[in-house]
Specification:
Two copies of one chain form a homodimer. Chain A has 301 residues and is of the alpha/beta class. The first copy, chain A, folds into three domains: 84 residues, Winged helix-like DNA-binding domain superfamily/Winged helix DNA-binding domain (Arc Repressor Mutant, subunit A), CATH 1.10.10; 105 residues, D-Maltodextrin-Binding Protein, domain 2 (3-Layer(aba) Sandwich), CATH 3.40.190.10; 94 residues, D-Maltodextrin-Binding Protein, domain 2 (3-Layer(aba) Sandwich), CATH 3.40.190.10. The first copy, chain A, contains ten helices and twelve strands. In chain A, the strands form three sheets. Chain A has a five-stranded mixed beta sheet. In chain A, β1 and β2 form a beta hairpin. The relative contact order of chain A is 0.13. Chains A and B meet through α4 of A and α4 of B. Chain A binds a DNA duplex (30 and 30 nucleotides) through α3.
DNA sequence: TGAAGGTTATGAATTTGATTCATATAACTT
DNA sequence: AAGTTATATGAATCAAATTCATAACCTTCA
């Protein structure tokens, strides 16, 4: 027996309408098409699904069994179809995020909090395991959004600017470098540099200053949490380079100073990388707006 | 989105096979047909269900949602199809019975007990409400079997003989009629006749003796249970006419006598009425055999 | 009982949807 | 860059579904 959803809908329509002609109207086909159709189903099933010795015809006991199945299965199909309509309309979907920027948790978590209120049907997740090779994962649809400061010219991938920030040098107030107006690459030569535990080429201090100037810090110490980095810096256990929004947040504590990198400072920009077909989804656009709003807030502090 | 079971099977086959060509083999269609098919589903859904930037292709997040639905719904469809195969093969089905013969419960219940052991998948029920107008109900598929002693020449309805029985006169041993060799219609004139609570034209004593002889008993008292009828008869509160299998069962009790109706006795035959298309279903044939076997047993007592 | 009205069935023609065939395109590996 | 593997594409073909027109059947009423 080759049963399809369509057949279940037919059975239900006939039962609910109490006749073939009315059901045909409901299904937007002719009575004749419906007659042929039920004959086809019966031929396949090998049993009579309708009793025709009364007028209008009605379901046989076998037909009633099919009706029972229809009443179980069709709501599941309707829910699935509604869900896909939501997907198409952008009301639902998946938003799995990979973050190349380790410090971005500081602004992203409040953003996602706000986002969830507006888009309860969107499946949100942060995928820490995909921070490495985030852009290939985006292409393979393993994530849906990558937060990155390194735009690339990739077909099928859009980089939407979020906001600009400045990576700044952070040292204890008593540190000798604290008296300078700005920091140069060579200033790092005798220092213990404290960083997040990521590939050094993905840290601004290396990509924008040290690597181009072929300078190596004395030692590098990796620390997971921003607060711990600042604690170690304040107690002169090392120096750090952090996004300005990070140190702006804890500006009340004056145990350390912040200095620009280079005379003119360095400005970096954060981007949201999305697949081209999804950039304009309403929920995606809303997340980007929320991210920019949070950035303005951070810069007011 | 016009989703069918077929589409769910396609999604599942692709996922399980890990590629389009292998899935096509599994589904017994060409790779090309499958490619067209998934393109068709995607066009309808309005979202991409597959990620093609890898080889072999794999399900997108939307596709995974469809797979989840497939894994829920397809087992339900498979069960339904298996059930219909059982129906066609006669392993399952419905057996709703209407009994025109009120005393037939005495042999039918043990028959059905045995039947259930052999045919656990057959839906068995006795429909007391349909005893009146049982044959029209059979035609309309409201019941599937009618036990009747009145065969009719009805197109589409088979009457299969079950067994013969004799309706016998029952009276207290001390009753004056107890001394006769047989009973005639006029013998009922001064008597209280105790019957089952059914239409008098459906009682053998009326249809075979009293009505043709234009005899009316003094009074008629209707009683539901056979055991109560026999009690009242034994205590000389009236007389009765019952099928011989009924009084044969309780023959140890000698407070009453049984006498044939007329000099030569009256023989009646019980029939199983079924719809012509269903008479030869294995479970139906088995029930008829069991009924006959039970009758032999009753006649041995 | 015959007529009228309502309902479903049927067959040929037509339309629509699915599949095949042959080949192009894309992804991956060496 | 070449070769292999995997999927996509378009035209042709086939199969399934639907329509149109009408036949057949059932129920009710006078």
């Amino acid at each position: 027996m080759h049963i399809e959803f369509r057949h279940l809908r037919t059975i239900k329509a006939i039962h609910d309408s109490g006749g073939l002609a009315r059901a045909a109207d409901q299904l937007n086909i002719t009575q004749s098409a419906l007659s042929h159709q039920i004959k086809g189903i019966e031929d396949q099933a090998g049993v009579e699904l309708f009793v025709r010795r009364s007028k209008p015809l009605k379901l046989s006991s076998s037909g009633m069994r099919l009706l029972a199945a229809a009443e179980t299965i069709l709501p599941q199909v309707a829910a699935l179809e509604a869900e896909f309509e939501g997907l198409v309309a952008g009301k639902s979907g998946r938003l799995h995020i990979a973050i190349e920027c380790h410090a971005c948790f500081e602004w992203l978590l409040p953003v996602l909090e706000e986002f969830r209120k507006a888009w309860p049907d969107v499946d949100v997740d942060i995928r820490p395991g995909l921070a490495f090779d985030a852009l290939p994962a985006l292409r393979k649809e393993e994530v849906d959004l990558v937060i990155s400061s390194d735009p690339e010219d990739l077909p099928g991938t859009d980089f939407t600017p979020l906001f600009d920030y400045e990576p700044v040098f952070v040292a204890a107030s008593s540190h000798p470098l604290a008296q300078k107006a700005f920091i140069e690459a060579k200033d790092f030569e005798g220092e213990t540099l404290i960083t997040y535990p990521v590939d050094r080429e993905r840290l601004d201090v290396f990509s924008q200053l040290l690597t181009p100037n072929k300078v190596e810090p004395k030692t590098i110490r990796q620390v997971e949490l921003t607060a711990v980095i600042l604690l170690l810096v304040a107690s002169n256990r090392g120096v750090a380079v952090l996004p300005d929004w990070v140190v702006r947040q804890v500006r009340y504590n004056s145990d350390y100073v912040t200095l620009p990198l280079t005379e003119t400072g360095i400005t970096r920009r954060l981007y949201a990388a999305t697949r081209t077909g999804e950039t304009n989804l309403p929920f995606m656009a809303h997340l980007i707006r929320l991210a920019r709003k949070e950035a303005v807030k951070l810069q007011r502090n």
